Amino acid sequence: MPKIQPLFPVPFAFDQHPDPARLNAALRELFLAHDRDADRNPVPYTERNAALFESRFDLFRWPQPEVAELREFCLSRTLQLVQQLNNHPPELMRQLRVGVESWFHVTRRHGWFGTHNHPNASWSGVYCVDAGRADAGSEDSGKLTFLHPNPEAGMHTDMGNESLVPPFNVAHAGYLLQAGQLVLFPSWLMHHVTPFVGEGERITVAFNCKFTR
Predict the structure, then answer these.
(1) Looking at the 3D structure of the chain, how many domains does it have?
(2) Looking only at Cα atoms, what is the longest distance across the chain?
């Protein structure tokens, strides 16, 4: 029997806020009040359409208590992930300084976000404030989709590899986020958001982290 060993898996982390309804109600009210040109990202570089609003990249510096609570939740989980994956001792973790970019998206019907990654960072995250209400028959509405990092992985599929289980799968990975859910992933990984086809607003927070001593 051959010994199977994964060599190139991609680490993801998933978490859930313990009390999302209260926090997300406050965040939703705040973000919809700042869904305006004065708070819009002035230099967007990723393709998107007019139905998607992207804020400036300074969200975690806002003074509101709901933002402070979200910042603590997101960054504490990111630090835990960094420590676990790197096997950093506690004394090294205390020396780390984290540079953060953070922003929010408000996506209305037919809004979408093109394929991109997050330069100048090692870890990125997405937190779901409101998933919106997808139309019946639109199961892929607003799906956060990560592209397989090996573009040659799917050059040929047959019965020998079409059903491989993670981390050996050759297909892309997509997630329909739920309110309060946090996804952490390497910043280099290409991803996009499929068109949101539904009622209400799909509201998410995104952030990038880079680490120095």
Answers:
(1) 1
(2) 63
